[in-house]
Amino acid sequence: MLLSIVCSASAIVFTMSLKATVLAFGQQLGFHQVQIGSLLPMPEAADHYQQWLDQGYAADMEYLKRDPARRSTPNKTFEAAKSVIIVSVSYYSVTPTPPPGSYGRVARYAVGEDYHRVIRSRLTDFCALLEKEVGRPIAARPVTDDAALYEQALAERHGLGFVGKNSLIIGPKLSGSYNFIAELFVNLELEADLEYQGTCGNCVRCIAACPTDAIKDSATTPGAALMVDSNLCISYLTIENKGGIPLSLRSKMGDWVYGCDICQEVCPYNSKPIPAPWPEFAPHNGAGHHLNLPQLLQIESDEKFVKRFQKSPLRRPKRRGLLRNALVVMGNQLKEEHSCRAEIVTAIGQFAAAESDQMLLEHSVWALAQCPKPATKIIVADIIARLSPEVLLQVENYV
Ligand code: B12
Ligand code: SF4
Ligand code: SF4
């Protein structure tokens, strides 16, 4: 049975001490910052979000376009809730030098186990601790990037940190932005925290460093708010995008095979990051910081792909998406090093010979076309002979 707390004078005294207990439990579990939020609507954030949608910056992420008002109305996330506990936890681990060979980089948030299940499990533990403390069941909903909720706006409103120009939350106790945001909606009355006043000052390093110029000024109120255009963001292109990588952006992907951290790597607030507290986020418990690309191309079926990336966020783009990314990175490596490394050419040639997906074949042709050697041209001609007329038209732009 769900019980709610009566807000009488004595209940307020109880609530104040309960808040201190909530913070202590959060820290005990390893969360780096714990804030309390209210469920009031966020009208300013709703306008900002609508502007982002209107400019087409959500790209093909249809789920973000459905019922936008819900995302800025936290009480719709869990109607039984009376407060929301907002938490943050670091996912940072040091990126080693890649081993010799053809490797692609994985964004730091994804090197270990999938954060959704890891954080949800910690939030369930959080709830169990609270139930023990209050001596009765609590109605609660754990959330991390898996509900129609504008998490950053909520976190910003209640002091988790400020939103940097790269559009990520940078917190006073977080030592930068390498952290996840999550929420535990509870039917407990807790006093909400206020906004934290932080700023980027005159710094524009992330805007300058972004290889695709994805960080944009607001079109309607220039200078007022920066936004990320997902159509251009390597994180979107390599994770969420289901189609091909646009030709004009392929060389800009560099060696990012999954996600991108450039606008965080250059941020001065990230100079002394806190390491991830939980073993699940360690690189040896997931895909790690670098993927061996020729080996990736040898995963010949969706079943084998799912087995290989079982608990990892790298499952998100599926085999087709991750192999597409690998081909782009390999193409960049062939071009960058002017060496047309035989290992890369052979791996793509063998892959393409056994593959039938037209998008992957087109990306194979593009990758090989970055190497002008005659031997590569023979492999390219073989692949081209197997392309559909529509894909052939695409390929004619660069072969
Ligand atoms: C869609 C999405 C993406 C998209 C779009 C990103 C974007 N910046 O909009 C893509 C796929 C590109 C993406 C990429 C990444 N993402 Co993402 N993503 C989300 C998601 C699901 C929604 C974000 C959203 O609503 N965007 C819409 C726009 C409008 O929001 P915004 O521009 O960020 O708005 C803020 C600022 O502009 C600022 N602001 C500035 N001026 C003004 C003015 C007003 C009036 C207001 C109200 C606000 C405002 O405040 C707003 C928020 O308060 C959230 C989870 C969630 N449910 O919220 C995770 C989330 C933002 N992503 C996250 C992460 C880790 C990443 C990556 C770092 C992953 C990676 N390494 O590849 C990159 C970073 C790229 C980047 N620089 O943003 C984390 C960020 C954690 C943090 N510390 O902030 C989140 C919160 C997930 C989580 N639960 O931890 N992501
Ligand atoms: S994640 Fe990469 S591509 Fe996206 S905004 Fe940041 S630097 Fe640009
Ligand atoms: S790099 Fe500079 S401008 Fe960008 S988020 Fe960090 S402090 Fe802000």
Question: Could you characterize the architecture of this molecule?
Answer:
This protein has 16 helices and 11 strands. The chain is an alpha+beta fold and 399 residues long. It has 2 domains: 297 residues, no CATH class; 101 residues. The chain has a 4-stranded antiparallel beta sheet with strand order 1-2-7-4, sandwiched between helices. Strand 5 and strand 6 form a beta hairpin. The longest helix is centred in the N-terminal third of the chain and has 21 residues. The radius of gyration is 23 Å and the shape is elongated. The N and C termini lie far apart (67 Å). It binds cobalamin and iron/sulfur cluster (SF4) (2 copies).
Provide the β-strand percentage band.
Answer: 5-15%
Q: Can you count the beta strands?
A: 11
The H/E string reads HEHHEEHEHEEEHEEHHEHEHHHHHHH
Helix amount: 25-40%
Query: How would you describe the oligomerization state of the chains in this entry?
Result: single chain
- Taking the alpha carbons of the first and last residues, their distance comes to 67 Å
Bound molecules: cobalamin, iron/sulfur cluster
Radius of gyration: 23 Å
Overall average pLDDT: 93
Number of domains: 2
3D shape = elongated
- Side by side, the strands of the main sheet go 1-2-7-4
Main β sheet profile: 4 strands, antiparallel
SS-derived structural category? alpha+beta
Question: If helices are DSSP runs of H or I spanning 4 or more residues, what is the number of helices?
Answer: 16
Catalogue the unreliable spans: 1-14
